[in-house]
Amino acid sequence: MSILEVKDIYFTYPDGDHRKTILNHVSASFDCGKFYTILGSSGCGKTTFLSLISALDKAESGDIYYNGINIKDIGFEKYRRNHVGIVFQNYNLITYMTALENVRIAMGITENDVGGDISSTALELLEKVGIDRTKADRRVTKLSGGEQQRVAIARALSTNADIILADEPTGNLDKKTGRGIVDIFKNLAHDLNKCVIVVTHSEEVARESDEILRLYSHTQSFNFE
Ligand SMILES: Nc1ncnc2c1ncn2[C@@H]1O[C@H](COP(=O)(O)OP(=O)(O)OP(=O)(O)O)[C@@H](O)[C@H]1O
Ligand SMILES: [Mg+2]
What domains lie within the chain, and their CATH numbers? Predict the structure, then answer.
């Protein structure tokens, strides 16, 4: 069974005096151990799609299943807290906190088992994505964009969620740093058996993934290549 099953999702936004269809009966399924990328032109609905599969938004019709259970039945908040880790494009870190505190706070919210000593687990995670102890104790506003991106990834991983979502995680990074981030996502899928779904504008990043999904604007089809 797929870890994530999206069935016939329909979603519109208000647009003046009518509504604009963004996702028109979209279906897709995602497995653990795989790194997926979603490509599509600007405005076609990629971020919207991520917000639906992370239960930040609600589709007008259609259903999303986590391990065969409708996320409506799990409860949106619970699903978000325990089953998905999200890396936002603008990181969404808490700016007055250190890198370590940002990760710790996420670990305090989930109901998943995150290991005994929260601080040392958080530090290990940060280390894994290339944030050493000195940087872990620095306020995140005093870290570079690439470093903040890594902190956001560590935070997404810290709750032990099976599904890791990221919205254009390499968009603001130089090539080398971007490649490092892509390697992290690959490892998450292939070594830690996570289901990793990354929205990107980069064909290069997409080539590194196991499956590419292309979202077409207005033709309203959403297909595997
Ligand atoms: N809250 C909102 N209210 C109304 N329309 C919105 C809202 N959020 C997004 N939209 C519109 O929905 C469409 C899809 O937006 P979305 O952010 O999903 O696109 P995207 O594929 O992520 O684009 P990009 O590659 O530029 O990030 C766009 O036309 C956008 O203007
Ligand atoms: Mg977007």
Answer: 34-50+80-224 (3.40.50.300)
Return the ligand 1 atom nearest residue 49 CA. 18
CA 44–ligand 1 middle distance (angstroms): 7
Q: What is the pTM of this model?
A: 0.92
Tokens encoding 190: 């292939």
Question: pLDDT of 61-90, one tens digit each?
Answer: 999 999 999 999 999 999 999 999 999 888
What distance in angstroms lies between residue 178's CA and the mean position of ligand 1's atoms?
24
Atom of ligand 1 nearest to the CA of 201: 25
Contact 120, 84 (CB under 8 A): no
Cβ contacts of 42-46, under 8 Å, gap ≥ 24: 42/201, 43/217, 44/215, 44/216, 44/217, 45/11, 45/215, 45/217, 46/167, 46/199, 46/215
Q: Can you tell me which atom of ligand 1 is nearest the CA of 215?
A: 21
If one residue of 47, 90, 217 were mutated to test the ligand 1 pocket, choosing by the most ligand atoms within 8 A of its CB, it would be 47
